[in-house]
Each structure stands twice: as structure tokens, then as C-alpha cells.
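User: What would this chain look like folded?
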Amino acid sequence: VKSEGPKLVPFFKATCVYFVLWLPTSSPSWFSALIKCLPIFCLWVFLLAHGINFLVSHRSASRILAGLIFSAVGDAFLIWQEQGYFIHGLLMFAITHILYSSAFGMKPLDLKAGLLMGVVSSSCYAFLYSYLSGPFTYLVAVYIALIGFMGWRAVAGVQLCNDLWTWTKLSACVGAMLFMVSDLTIALDEFCFPVPYSRLIIMATYYAAQMLIALSAVESRDEEDCRKRS
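Assistant: Here's the prediction, encoded as C-alpha cells.
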């Protein structure tokens, strides 16, 4: 916290700016897109502040940075979702989840966590199915499968029973769960019924999720120092 906290100050300030301005979604503009994407830009800077060598030597960190870049593009598309860019945003975030899944890796496998995430994802799609039509019937299915897979890989990394966990893996797990909450709220509000305070729920969980996933890319400096000393 001491080493990484100060680097996140710009992110917290940008997030506050977004919620304070609370620009209306009925009037999309490049300015509103900038304000929405600014916290994600700050997370780019957060990762880049650790140095290019860090990103090059840690593939998971570079993939999370790439995911954040696609997320920002997706955010911009969703500003104009009423003008027909919702699918474009969906595609950008689908790529983001593929990159995050790749960053989290396939070890440990943890099939129990995979089964649990499969049940959760299937249940969500089963509920949404009757509200979907046209290409969204298939697009939403693929998207839920991708974010469910990403959630599985994040949860699988936290082996609490075996005491094989780190704060970075726990951060990835919580971040993935919050991302799923954010996207489920979007789906319910977009396809099913108006969700009270939907925008607040969506953006609060989304920004928190992205921050935690970005934090998961950073190895503990204390652990590195201990390894060097030993």
C-alpha cells in the first residue's frame, strides 16, 4: 500500500472528477468520453510508472495494460451506444476479458472454481435469454462465456485453503467479481428492466474492478527485496 498507493492518486482524482461532473448520458460528446475514460488512462500511467522493463519482463502486466487500452476504447464506444455503437463496445470489452484471462494464466486449474463460475454464468444467461433477440442472443452468450472464463481464472489463483495466495491474486479475484457485477447490471438495465441507480452501480463497480485488476499486475516489492537479500 505504501509503495503503490501514491501512484494511484491520479486515478482516484480522475474518478472523483467523473462522479462530481456526472455528465448526462443523453448528450454524448468527446468531452464526456474523455471524462469517462480518464480514470482508465490514469491506470495506464500507473502501470507504465513501473517501467517499460517491468512490463516487458512480466507478460501478465503487459496483457493487463493492453486490456486497459481496449477497455478505454470500449468506454468511448459506449458513450455513443444509443447511436448504434453498443456492439462495438461489447467487442472491445470481450477482447479485454480475453487479455485478462491470459494474464491470470491457467495454473492452478481449480476445476471446482470453473464449475462454480460455469453455473453462475449459465444462470445469468438463462435469465437474460428471454429478453434477448436478434444477434444479441448469440453475442451476449459469447460475452458471458468470456467474462465467466476470466472470473474463473481470477478466482482459481486464490488458493486460500492451501495458503497459496498473495494480495495481488486476491486483488485480481475481487476485481473480476466486481467486473461481473458491473456488466450484469448493464445487461439487466439494457435488455430487461430499468435498474435503480444503474449508472452509479455500473461505474462504481467498474472503476473499482479495473483498479484492482491493474493492482494485480504489480508484484510485491517487499517480496522481491526479500528474494534479493536471500
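The radius of gyration is 18 Å. If you want, I can go into more detail on any region.
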